[in-house]
Amino acid sequence: MRIRSLVVPLAASALLLAGCAPAAPDPEQTTPASTLGGTVTVLAAASLTDVFDELAEQFMAENPDVEIVLSYGGSSALAEQIVSGSPVDVFASANESTMKTVTDAGLTVEPVVFTTNVLELAVPAGNPGGVTGLADLANPDLTIALCDPAVPCGSASEKLLAQEGITASVDTLEEDVRAALTKVALGEVDAALVYRTDVLSAGDEVEGIGIPEAESVLNSYPISLLTEAPNPEAAQAFIDFVLGQVGRQALTDAGFGTP
Predict the structure, then answer these.
(1) What is the pTM of this model?
(2) In CATH, what class is 119-217?
(3) Which residues pair with 191 in a beta bridge?
């Protein structure tokens, strides 16, 4: 009886201690901390400004030791920077021919098309010039802005106008699509050919006029890790993020198409 009286309290104490001990973590419910770090430099087409800003913020929230540094502009100018030796991790171009410039220099790692875009007419709020369609770009009484043919927006515009037999009465050629959009938003021009996504990004400042014929000159956007990337591991993780479900949804919400 003496032995039993000792064993029972001890067993009860063991059970009590077991009940107070923290539960072992479930490996299936544990999210490993990111091991990525450092700076990732991304050069991206101007039309990607809003969506890449959003994706970079989300990526950095999930990877707090990584800083994404974004630089936007005309794709051809960005390609020149890379070919000239600028230390860049990721390049996202607004067309495949511009990416080819960098690929031909041996500086890309398997570019992949991740989204598409299409041209649209942008006019100031209220459409003071009374623009109704693509043919109005030939009207010399209107002030017209186009992207420079050296950048993807400009080369697509040039191709579309030639295809439709329209000679635009151009008043200004802009260095990238956002510069052309700004001219419209400020009311400095009556119309400009920009991307559908740019019209959406401008909100109430501009109005968009769809161009069914523009579907034939769709722009395909490739993205690539660069062979001389200073931070290839984190850079590839950002590319994977853009290509993944979160990136796809953000691009769709911004008006981009599926490749």
Answers:
(1) 0.84
(2) alpha beta
(3) 144
